[in-house]
């Protein structure tokens, strides 16, 4: 992605990539073209799609904040683990047992905060296009942007995978977007949706409502899909993104009580 050159998140995601980012390849080819006296096809000036200078303070400020949110489950888990170990070391077993359970609760609290940050309220977002979304240099891989997209379902995100529930949308601007679906019944529900519903959506005109996010690739976490003939598909990506953390947090509180009781 062109703007990944100036997106701090790209520095993190690049570490797990097996090859340089596409944007850097295009940048290198543009430099070669300039050395030959040719005008590059694409410009890599540090501006957004409207020609406004990129706000580096905003980019790096958001990056540091979201990096903290991303690792918050680990941070809170360690925050409870340290005093729990110290309590056992000094034979405060009841306190240690209680804090040991709170390690799980802390992880769950971090997951909950992360989930609610990643899936903000959808409200009534304006219709947009893939081109407009991909031209936003401030797009986040963590915090979803509420969006509405119109287009045609063209295939499965994992081509040829008959049990793949995710699919691709070709929007009115000619851009492709992966649509991430989650069933309320977990993996089994995803398999059922993939086998029974995805095939019937192919080549249909649809409108999707969800959360757009971008890192190395781009996707919309689906909330609702409506076909031209009025059929509805409801996805639970936001629900699972939030409910998982709450469940782990409550489990941790229960373990803390059990741990303290057992130690006493």
Report on this structure.
The protein has 264 residues and is of the alpha+beta class. It folds into 3 domains: 2-45, no CATH class; 69-119 and 244-263; 130-237, Beta Barrel (OB fold (Dihydrolipoamide Acetyltransferase, E2P)), CATH 2.40.50.200. It has 8 helices and 6 strands; from the N terminus they run H-H-H-H-H-H-E-E-E-H-E-E-E-H. Strands 1-2-3-5-4 form a 5-stranded mixed β-barrel. A hairpin with a 3-residue loop joins strand 4 and strand 5. Helix 4 runs antiparallel to helix 5 and helix 5 runs antiparallel to helix 8 (237-263).
Largest sheet: 5 strands, mixed, barrel
CATH topology (level 3) name of the largest domain: OB fold (Dihydrolipoamide Acetyltransferase, E2P)
Main sheet: which strands, in order across?
1-2-3-5-4
**For the record, what is the CATH homologous superfamily label of the largest domain?**
Bacterial OB-fold
Can you give keywords for this protein?
6 strands; five-stranded mixed barrel; OB fold (Dihydrolipoamide Acetyltransferase, E2P); 3 domains; 264 residues
């Amino acid at each position: 992605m062109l703007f990944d050159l100036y997106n701090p998140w790209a520095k993190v995601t690049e570490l797990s990539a097996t090859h340089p980012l596409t944007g850097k390849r295009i940048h290198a080819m543009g430099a070669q073209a300039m050395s030959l006296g040719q005008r590059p096809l694409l410009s890599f000036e540090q501006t957004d799609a409207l020609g406004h200078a990129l706000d580096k303070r905003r980019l790096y400020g958001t990056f540091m904040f979201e990096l903290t949110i991303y690792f918050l489950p680990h941070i809170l888990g360690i925050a409870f683990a340290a005093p729990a170990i110290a309590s056992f070391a000094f034979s405060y077993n009841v306190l240690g047992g209680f804090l040991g359970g709170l390690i799980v609760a802390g992880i769950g609290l971090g997951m909950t905060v992360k989930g609610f940050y990643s899936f903000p309220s959808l409200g009534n977002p304006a219709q947009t296009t893939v081109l407009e979304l991909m031209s936003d240099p401030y797009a986040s891989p963590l915090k979803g942007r509420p969006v509405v997209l119109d287009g045609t379902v063209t295939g499965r995100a994992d081509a040829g995978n008959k049990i793949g529930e995710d699919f691709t949308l070709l929007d009115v601007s000619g851009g492709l977007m992966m649509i991430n679906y989650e069933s309320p019944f977990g993996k089994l529900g995803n398999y059922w949706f993939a086998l029974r519903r995805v095939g019937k959506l192919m080549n249909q005109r649809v409108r999707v409502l969800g959360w757009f996010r971008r890192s190395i690739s781009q996707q919309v976490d689906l909330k609702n899909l409506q076909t031209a003939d009025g059929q509805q598909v409801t996805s639970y990506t936001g629900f699972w993104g939030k409910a998982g953390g709450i469940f782990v947090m409550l489990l941790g509180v229960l373990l803390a009580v059990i741990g303290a009781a057992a130690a006493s």
